[in-house]
Amino acid sequence: MTVIVPHHQLFAVDALLPSGWAKDVVLSWDAHGVLTHVDANTLAPANVARASGPVLPGMPNLHSHAFQRAFAGLTEHRGQAQDSFWSWRTLMYRFASRLGPEQMEAIATWLYAEMLEAGYTSVCEFQYVHHDADGTPYTDDAELSLALLRAANTTGIGFTLLPVLYQTSGFGAKPPSEGQRRFIRSTESMLALLEGLKPRCDAQGAQLGLAPHSLRAVPPDSLRDAIAGLNRIDPASPIHIHIAEQTQEVDDCVAWSGQRPVAWLLDHMPVDARWCLVHATHMDHEEYDRGARSGAVAGLCPTTEANLGDGIFDFPRWRDHGGIWGVGSDSHACVNAAEELMLLEYGQRLSTRQRNVGAEAAHRHVATALTLGAVQGGAQASGRAIAGLATGQQADFVVLDSTHLALQGLAPADMLSAHVFASHRTSAIAEVWRAGQARVTAGRHPLHESAARAFVAARAQLLQDQ
Predict the structure, then answer these.
(1) Residues 95, 462: contact at Cβ < 8 Å?
(2) How far apart are CA 334 and CA 307, in angstroms?
(3) In contact, 104 and 147? CB cutoff 8 Å
């Protein structure tokens, strides 16, 4: 097991740097967990801990709805003649209506421990359950957001909090439904929430941003006013939005505005590198081109998009236009960074009827190319310095288990390939470090048992009245 030594260093025989695989790498970081030196092709210093396997950059998870982890697996039965995202959403609303702060914190604590064990070192939490069950604000209006901040702090995962602005149930300012009452906020209320959360996020090193839920849930004037208000609080903070996830959403947007969702957003909002376009599944050629050139991150959630029957993002087209992208676990039907990359690649193979679609000229191994791309995009979407094993970035990294049967005896690039494509749902991760501290050792987070028990109890309580 790797242990921290006083001078904050680790030696890795093999490490995946932003430029690719490197040999004999010394990682050095300061007391704040920021990398001060990354030196390759060097001798191992005396008395410096050695990584027990290849070292990878920690993976940012750019899209999470934490509470949804508690009903993963509970919607896998046919409830009507043709189930879809929209019928799933009805079940999700019913579950969200029972959620309290204690259950939110218990669910998120287990989820974030799971994420760390699965190779995620940071998460962007798209938080839209704001109020009590009847839609009235809590005494502390930030109650549920604070529960998530506590869960992140307890587990040690890096955190970007994205309170969600949600006002309408459809394009054209349709009134919200009964199931949405816990989500609804005025623009002024959202900006007041952000003002109150900013010092609390700063105090634990978390990044605060804003998530306009979607074009159907935030009218244009509110969207403009919210972004202007956010800019006054923090002009560099990230902005995430669900967009073009479903074909019905695209059709409804065209009926409302005459434009497809991504085209409307690009024409009417200052979309740039601060933005994360979550899903962006259904775009035409011009939207792929303009969206990529905007500098925004495409937030891909392959396991959730598959679970909900959303469709398949045209990954080669986005990359051909220079598009930046990252991955998220979204509804948490799966919590595994490697499996998100696997399904991203397999979806493209099914769509194009080709193999190794994710490879690049500089990185012929698919798993290497996808890992580096997802880390870069995830860091940008997080608004935090977590873009891999480089000076000035946070010391977030994963040590693969070189004794795992799927990895034994392989070259480092092949070990990563086996981790993504051949570990058969058994963890090939030995350790996970965040900000220079070991959060997972021997494949386990120290809160694994206690957090799991609290999660099961919270889920049971929420299911009592189902």
Answers:
(1) yes
(2) 9
(3) yes
Question: pLDDT tens digit string along 331-366?
Answer: 999 999 999 999 999 999 999 999 999 999 999 999
CA distance 279 to 245: 5
| Strand 9-17 with 20-29, pairing | antiparallel
For the chain, report the end-to-end CA distance as a whole number of angstroms.
Answer: 44
Determine whether 234 is an active site residue: no
Identify whether the C-beta of residue 307 lies closer than 8 Å to the C-beta of residue 333.
yes
Model confidence band, residue 463 (pLDDT cutoffs 50, 70, 90):
confident
The reported pTM is 0.95
* pLDDT at res. 82: 62
- Contact assessment for residue 12 and residue 59, using Cβ atoms and an 8 Å cutoff: no
**C-alpha atoms less than 13 angstroms from C-alpha of 322 in its C-beta half-sphere:** 6
Question: Pairing state of beta strands 35-39 and 158-165?
Answer: unpaired
- Whether residue 106 contacts residue 458, with contact meaning beta carbons closer than 8 Å, is answered with yes
Q: Which residues have a Cβ under 8 Å from the Cβ of 235 and sit 6 or more positions away?
A: none
Tens digit of each residue's pLDDT (9 = 90 or more) over 144-157: 999 999 999 999 99
Q: What is the DSSP letter of 66?
A: G
What would the two tokens of residue 407 be? Answer: 């990895």
Residue 465: which residues within 8 A CB-CB, separation 6 or more?
A: 98
165-208 pLDDT, tens per residue?
Answer: 999 999 999 999 888 899 999 999 999 999 999 999 999 999 99
- Asked whether 262 and 280 are in contact (CB, 8 A), the reply is yes
Least confident of 38-47, 110-119, 174-183, 437-446: 174-183
Tell me how far apart the alpha carbons of residues 366 and 341 are, in angstroms, rounded to a whole number: 9
- Of 65, 213, 240, 279, the active-site residue reads 279
SS3 193: helix
Closest by CA to 117, choosing from 298, 338, 290, is 338
Of the candidates 310, 314, 330, 396, the residue annotated as catalytic is 330
Asked if residue 160 lies in contact with residue 382, where contact means CB atoms within 8 angstroms, the answer is: yes
Whole-number CA gyration radius for the chain: 21
Helix or strand run (H / E) with residue 198:
helix 187-203
Residue 445 annotated among the catalytic residues of the structure: no
Task: For residue 277, list its beta bridge partners.
Answer: 241, 298
